[in-house]
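User: Structure tokens for this complex, please. No commentary.
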Amino acid sequence: MASQLRRSLTVPMATGTALTNTVRVRGLSRSFGSDRVLNDLDLDIAPGEFVALIGRSGSGKSTLLRALAGLDHQVTGELAVDGEVSIAFQEPRLVPWKRVTDNVRLGLRGPDPQARAAAALAEVGLTDRSRAWPLTLSGGEAQRASLARALVRDPSLLLLDEPFSALDALTRIAMHRLVLSLWERHRPAVLLVTHDVDEALALADRVLVLTAGRISHACVVTADRPRDRNQAHLHASRTRLLAELGVDREGKI
Amino acid sequence: MPGNRPALVEEDAPPGPAVRLVPATVPSATTTAPVTAASRPGRGATRRRGATMLRLISPVVVLVAWQLASQSGLISKQKLPPPTQVWSTAVSLVTQDSAAYGTLQGALLVSLERVAIGFAVGASIGLLLAVVAGLSRFGENAVDPLMQMLRTLPLFGLIPVFIVWFGIGVAPKIILIAIGAAIPLYLNAFAGIRNVDPKLGELSRVLHLNRRELIAQIVLPGAMPQILVGLRQSLGVAWLALVVAEQINTNAGLGFMISQATQFLRQDVIIVALLVYCILGLLTDWLVRILERRVLSWRRSFVAA
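Assistant:
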């Protein structure tokens, strides 16, 4: 199977007219030794669509994300991403010897990177911390800086690799709101990798379950945001998704 | 999760311009930890001044004992002149241009020039080679074996060889200092570069950093703590190489002053010259400390937090 890695540089801003999908993946496979982590996987993400990817540990979530970020060159199959890709990692991965603002503008091309970095930091509410060293930030602040660094590149695809998993519950709720408002304003396609079913249901248009290297279940969520997790059909979706993940009603695995 | 393997070495990545950080395969030759004793924060200035005063006690005691032993005749003044005599010799070396020694400041300038040129050349080469070896397997295979061999070579054993090769002028002295300075900086910088967090290498690929940006923004700052350790070691070796090199076939400099004084049995002049070496060594060490405090402030703020 020939590996076709295509990356166009233009960003078609055709919101609504989904002629070109932002992500188009066909027959994607990746093995580590005899372990087939991605197995003939297909995936489409429309421009501006918010997709959550859930799955148990070892299901291949991170592998897929790394492939989409262009960090894995050993995948086989077809993988095309239309436009710029940005990623916010699980650990915020700020460069410790660069102040917050310099982290955001790191590698930033185009006119006036300083002003764009400042604008991005203002959007995530970190203006007053822009001169701080990363090691002095709280977990939530660091993750917001990481989001600003991803968004300032104006990506057509934003990859979020369990970015909230290390945050406390209250900070996480605040981050959910922030991500939604940023997404509504900039409308990138988003692929959020998470192991939290509630988080996926609260944020995404579509929740995908990854099992053994393949998308085993897809669940479209149409409820308006912000969502109340106690809504009846969300509750039904949660039960179904948990069942897909192998957790039954009593919470037994 | 396989995707999360601590994969810094992207052995599987295709050949191309992408720069990769590769961990070392050779056991690191440096034993010095990259953690510096640079700063112990959270202390008031007064306490620090008090600590400095405490540290001055033992040198002062030694100085007084030396003076007393010399004056009472316990130690022969020919073998070890008292501090007061050393001081007056120093003053006269500065104020009078003697036929045998020249002036102290003249000798100092000559020596400083030699060490500055030798150190600058050696440190630049050491750092450059460390970057070449640190950033690719090819570079490592090309550079590291040679540097490891050079490291084991007794530096001062090279002097007779250098005299044959480069004559007895300034060149062999500067080359000796340069080699001496290059090796510790190379070893430390190489280890430092290989210890840069692989995740930051991955980040720089996601952010499309080019090679120049990767080196200037990620690799060198990341290796900086250890580079500074290497810098201090390099300076130490450079001074040492200067002392040795200068006593061979020179007609100017601190080393020349020492070899002249040896012939005239002037222990006081020798001691003055040695003290000047001491002061120069301390001075450069202090400069590196200041540099450390400036360059590693991001780390200090963490310690203080």
